[in-house]
């Protein structure tokens, strides 16, 4: 089904060659690396001098939604924003349930509309489109690059290299600066043959994720899709695979383009944005993912990660052992609350019975997916039992087309509930299942709590990811897990599905505000009472004393665990209120500990030396036993000693691009993270942009570091200024045992990144 090759491979004239075959043809692999689509598009957007190993990219357009754009614009305003220099779409698909949190969600939307007027932006009102569907329909184009503040910013199937990053990276673009990244490796994803009837894009995507996530095969690399299998896929099918590449932890993605892409862009009035994209001459790739599309069966990602994948048929027939492992993981993650997830009890009458189906968002809510689900459910019934089905078309133009071709009627007649464009099911703000329920979803993620349950309150449910086709097949069986390949695809009902899409531009033309290149500097920026400015942040001091406020030993820590999605979404415009939820699902004691540490730093800044010295005597006692002179010198000049908190996690930052996963720690006085490795570039970038040290330590720290230990980093400012990779320090155990020396690494930092850390945050960097 999928094979991996960890060595260079060459494509020449549409043929896949081994390195030996390329050598026999006299192909120079080093030169051929410049022929990949990824290299050519990156080079066209790179402003760095030739030969510089760090790319300095400027993007053609930006996109944010209503969880992120307020903070981005507030940061940019504080840093000198005058106007939006490129098209910037402010969509409203996350906080569009305006009954949640009083007026604050709609206050954010009003802020977004007035910001679009003031600075010359594009405002897409609530319920009109999910962020990525609008970008596909109205922004993506061949050879372009788009930067978004949502991690699933992926438009590679339309010839656009798109990257999802934390908000501060968009701030840099708004201020005319660059996105800096080491030149990435390029991984060829070679598609062969054609999918079986009933196998959809989510099935292919999950199969790829399962093959490459755990081993980091494509981490921080670009995935370039090519091969004879591409031509047989519709554009929406390609988009459905492409959007899920985020879950592989790759940096971006790009596909070869053809007449189908041209027709798609022409359908949306943008044929001029088409260009044929193919490798020019022999192209060399660093690695290979080879996919036999014909061998991919319907797949399911069991809780609690998109990489936890198995064939649907295997789980449906005899998945008790697999579900036992999920139950064990629930108990491990949630403690007593995890006992409520009894998935094995859902096996009865010879099958596995699910409780809820959702087809939604940028991955599932496409016209084609909804049409396929409608055809499968035509004349069928979802039943009147526990199982329910909700379908969210990804945009109003798509919903209108589904009304006109009859698909909506078929879905409704079968018992499905049709809802408007909304990302809620993807991050826990809509269709939260019952306690103990199993929800099957064509959406993007199934992390713990992603569906909206609250294990801290004894509420827990599970999400499994599936393709819309198999969800519809399951719905037709009243919730009994069913792969879509079990259906008779030769029946007239399924053989002649109407996929004739007609895009109606009136929906956007009448409601979307497009003010690009037409800023109104005198326009009033309307800020509701919940929209707050960032608190003052201070430059990196000469020395740092870090108190360990949390130690997380899970193999991977998601951004959902660092700052919860769902119930906190309405507070994303208020840094102080949002910070109260930091690590609330993973370590409820973290906020209290961080605040206690921050109080000491506030006392230091206020000149209350007696309070500070009293705490230092306690915290630094282990160091007195090994280096009393150092203790005395630090206590003698408190102006040079910063005091803050630090979080240790083995591999933090998987998942969302939300910068609040880092900024909330900084608001609470955090100065650093310590990790064995960072799950994604975007989380590490978020730490840096909020002035936090992205420290790397040994795996042994997971066993030897404890909450309330202290870490002293003398001379840390000089080390950052000198571009030192290693930072020497001391671990001061809370149990009073003698201090022990330690060394942390910073990893590669650009000159600007070092300066941001030294200045204390991106805002300070731009206001020096």
TrEMBL record:
Coiled-coil spans in chain: none
Stored Gene3D superfamilies: Aconitase, Domain 2, Aconitase, domain 3, Aconitase, domain 4
Cofactor requirement: [4Fe-4S] cluster
Keyword terms: Iron, Iron-sulfur, Metal-binding
SUPFAM superfamilies in UniProt: Aconitase iron-sulfur domain (SSF53732), LeuD/IlvD-like (SSF52016)
Highest taxon of the lineage: Bacteria
InterPro entries: Acnase/IPM_dHydase_lsu_aba_1/3 (IPR015931), Acoase/IPM_deHydtase_lsu_aba (IPR001030), Aconitase/3IPM_dehydase_swvl (IPR015928), Aconitase/IPM_isomerase (IPR050926), Aconitase_4Fe-4S_dom (IPR036008), Aconitase_dom2 (IPR015932), AconitaseA/IPMdHydase_ssu_swvl (IPR000573)
Positions of the Aconitase/3-isopropylmalate dehydratase large subunit alpha/beta/alpha domain: 41-472
Any one GO CC term of the record: cytosol
Domain Aconitase A/isopropylmalate dehydratase small subunit swivel, residue spans: 652-695
Keyword Zinc found: no
MF-aspect GO terms: 4 iron, 4 sulfur cluster binding; aconitate hydratase activity; metal ion binding
Xref: PANTHER family: ACONITATE HYDRATASE B (PTHR43160), ACONITATE HYDRATASE, MITOCHONDRIAL (PTHR43160:SF3)
Protein name: Hydratase
């Amino acid at each position: 089904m999928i094979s991996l090759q960890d060595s260079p491979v060459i494509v020449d004239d549409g043929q896949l060659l081994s390195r030996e075959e390329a050598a026999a043809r006299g192909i120079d692999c080093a030169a051929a690396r410049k022929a990949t689509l990824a290299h050519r598009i990156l080079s066209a957007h790179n402003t760095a001098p030739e030969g510089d190993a760090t790319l300095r990219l400027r993007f053609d357009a930006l996109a944010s939604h209503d969880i992120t754009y307020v903070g981005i614009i507030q940061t940019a305003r504080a840093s000198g924003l005058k106007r939006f220099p490129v098209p910037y779409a402010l969509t409203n698909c996350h906080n569009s349930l305006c009954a949640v949190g009083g007026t604050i969600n709609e206050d954010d939307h009003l802020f977004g509309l007035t910001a679009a007027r003031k600075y010359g932006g594009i405002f897409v009102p609530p319920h009109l489109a999910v962020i990525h569907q609008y970008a596909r329909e109205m922004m993506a184009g061949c050879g372009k690059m788009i930067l978004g503040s949502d991690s699933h910013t992926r438009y590679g199937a339309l010839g656009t290299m798109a990257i999802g990053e934390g908000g501060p990276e968009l701030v840099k673009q708004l201020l005319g600066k660059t996105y800096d990244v080491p030149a990435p490796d390029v991984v060829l994803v070679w598609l062969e043959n054609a999918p079986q009837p009933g196998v959809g894009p989510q099935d292919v995507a999950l199969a790829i994720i399962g093959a490459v996530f755990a081993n980091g095969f494509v981490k921080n690399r670009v995935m370039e899709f090519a091969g004879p299998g591409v031509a047989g896929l519709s554009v929406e099918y390609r988009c459905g695979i492409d959007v899920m590449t985020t879950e592989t932890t790759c940096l971006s993605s790009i596909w070869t383009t053809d007449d189908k892409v041209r027709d798609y862009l022409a359908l949306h009035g943008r044929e001029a944005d088409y260009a044929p994209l193919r490798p020019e001459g022999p192209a060399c790739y660093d690695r290979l993912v080879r996919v036999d599309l014909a061998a991919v069966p319907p797949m399911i990602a069991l809780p609690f990660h998109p990489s936890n994948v198995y064939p649907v048929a295997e789980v449906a027939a005899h998945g008790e052992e697999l579900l036992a492992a999920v139950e064990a993981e629930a108990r491990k993650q949630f403690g007593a609350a995890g006992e409520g997830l009894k998935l094995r009890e859902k096996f009865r009458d010879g099958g596995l019975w699910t409780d809820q189906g959702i087809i939604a968002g940028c991955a599932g809510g496409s016209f084609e997916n909804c049409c396929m689900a409608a055809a499968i459910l035509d004349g069928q019934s979802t039943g009147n039992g526990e199982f329910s089905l909700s379908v969210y078309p990804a945009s109003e133009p798509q919903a209108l087309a589904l009304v006109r071709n009859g698909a909506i009627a078929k879905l409704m007649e079968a018992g499905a509930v049709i809802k408007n464009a909304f990302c809620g099911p993807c991050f826990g703000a809509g269709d939260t299942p019952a306690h103990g329920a199993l929800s099957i979803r064509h959406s993007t993620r199934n992390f713990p709590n992603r569906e909206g349950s609250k294990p801290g309150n004894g509420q827990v449910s599970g999400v499994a990811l599936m393709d819309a086709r198999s969800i519809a097949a399951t719905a037709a069986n009243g919730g009994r897990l069913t792969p879509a390949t079990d259906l008779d695809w030769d029946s007239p009902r399924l053989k002649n599905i109407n996929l004739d899409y007609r895009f109606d531009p009136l929906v956007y033309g009448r409601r979307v505000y497009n003010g690009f290149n037409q800023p109104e500097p005198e326009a009033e920026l309307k800020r509701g009472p919940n929209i707050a400015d960032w608190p003052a942040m201070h430059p990196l001091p000469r020395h740092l004393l870090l108190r360990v406020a949390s130690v997380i030993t899970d193999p991977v820590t998601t951004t959902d665990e660092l700052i919860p999605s769902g119930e906190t979404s309405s507070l994303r415009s208020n840094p102080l209120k949002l910070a109260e939820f930091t690590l609330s699902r993973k370590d409820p004691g973290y906020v209290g500990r961080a605040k206690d540490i921050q109080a000491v730093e506030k006392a230091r800044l206020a000149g209350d030396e007696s309070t500070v010295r009293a705490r230092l005597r306690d915290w630094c006692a282990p160091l007195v036993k090994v280096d009393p002179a150092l203790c005395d010198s630090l206590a003698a000049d408190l102006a040079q000693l910063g005091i803050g908190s630090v979080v240790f996690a083995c591999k933090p930052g998987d998942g969302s691009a939300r910068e609040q996963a880092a900024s909330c720690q900084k608001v609470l006085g955090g100065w650093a993270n310590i990790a064995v490795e960072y799950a994604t570039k975007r989380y590490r970038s978020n730490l840096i942009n909020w002035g936090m040290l992205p420290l790397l330590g040994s795996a042994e720290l997971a066993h030897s570091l404890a909450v309330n230990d202290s870490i002293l980093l003398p001379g840390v400012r000089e080390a950052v200024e000198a571009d030192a990779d290693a930072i020497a320090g001391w671990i001061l155990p809370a149990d009073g045992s003698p201090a022990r020396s330690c060394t942390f690494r910073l990893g590669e930092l650009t000159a600007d990144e070092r300066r941001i850390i030294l200045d204390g945050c991106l805002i300070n960097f731009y206001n020096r």
